Amino acid sequence: MEYISAREAGDKWSITNRMVNYHCVAGRIKGAVKKGNLWLIPQSAEKPADGRRKKGVIQKEQETTVSQDLYDLYVQRRCNGEWPFESLYENEQLFIEIFRHFPYPMHICAPDGTMLLANEAYLEFAKISNPEKLYKKHNIILNPNLERWGIKDFVSRSYQGEVVNAYDVKVPHQEIVERLGDDHELIFGSLYQDMTAFPILDDNHQLEFVITVFITSRYYHDKEEIMKGKEYIDNHCKEEFDIDKLADIVHMSRYHYTRLFKQHTGITPYNYYQDVKLGKLKEKLCDTNLTIAQAFAECGVDYNGNFAKIFRQKTGMNPSRYRKMMIEK
């Protein structure tokens, strides 16, 4: 089977690369596979339906009306010399429509932590078919699992009126579905998300709402041994590669684990480790506050060591040229 990249699929379907990744994580693209940090899409795959929207003529007409209303308001405000999108705060229907169709899970809560509204992406994520069971009955602050999940400080600060970001948080997806969902289906795989919470203040600068957005940063959906290995490598990529330690984690011999890993991913654990390290290094090289040597050090490698050679082999250019190219984009 021939594959194309997520970017190529996005160009083919006229959607963003991020949206293609979203569909892959949601399992909407048949035959899509993840190699390292990249999604590969079967060349013959069809564009997935947008699961965030209901089908039907009535719904389509409503969306068209909302879009036209938004455009008309934009033109009106622009002609009056005012900030064009101020009208969103004055038009409840428009705000709710935009919130409802936002492509990433998000919810709105009251200052006491009571959930007031969740968008379609969040309802799908938590496997909730009847949101009425959720609204005004689920309290974020009173969730007894916050400390165990590692987000107690995140929640506490966000409900004190602070904009808070948390990156690459391992999500207890199964527990969330069991706690909030309707069918309690088994969730296979491990999910990591970036979370942002920001306050909405009233005219007296008092906290009125807290909006939280969740964006998937990593997702593993494979045999348990493969998932554990990938997670370990991702979380310890600054350390030296140790196949024996990796094999011990999954209770297999190094030979059998390497064979199993390659059978399911197409690459060896060490190749995956190199790809992860390379991805981290590329991110650090884009940070101009770091020197090239510091960027390497942040990834646990020496600029004068062997990994600089690996970088050139993988990218076709040296680190300095790569940084210059990314800055000029």
Descriptive report:
With 329 residues, the chain is an alpha+beta fold. The chain folds into four domains: 3-42; 54-100; 104-220, 2-Layer Sandwich (Beta-Lactamase); 224-328, Homeodomain-like (Arc Repressor Mutant, subunit A, Orthogonal Bundle). The protein contains 15 helices and eight strands. The protein has a five-stranded antiparallel beta sheet. It has a three-stranded antiparallel beta sheet with strand order 1-3-2. α1 packs across α2 and α9 (224-235) runs parallel beside α12 (269-285). The protein is globular and about 60 Å long. The two termini are 33 Å apart. The model is unreliable at 52-67 and 83-88 (pLDDT under 50).
- CATH top-level class of the largest domain: Alpha Beta
Strand/helix succession: EHHEEHHEEHHHEHEEHHHHHHH
Give the strand order, joined by hyphens, for the main sheet: 5-4-8-7-6
User: What portion of the residues fall into strands of 2 or more residues?
Assistant: 15-25%
Shape: globular
Which consecutive residue ranges, at least 5 long each, have pLDDT under 50? 52-67, 83-88
Cα distance spanning the termini? 33 Å
In total, the number of domains comes to 4
> Biggest β-sheet: count, sense, barrel?
5 strands, antiparallel
Overall pLDDT, averaged?
79
Q: What is the radius of gyration computed over CA atoms, rounded to a whole number of angstroms? A: 23 Å
Q: Could you estimate the helical fraction of the residues in percent?
A: 40-55%
Q: Figure out the total of helices.
A: 15
Number of strands: 8
Any idea what the CATH architecture of the largest domain is?
A: 2-Layer Sandwich
CATH topology of the largest domain: Beta-Lactamase
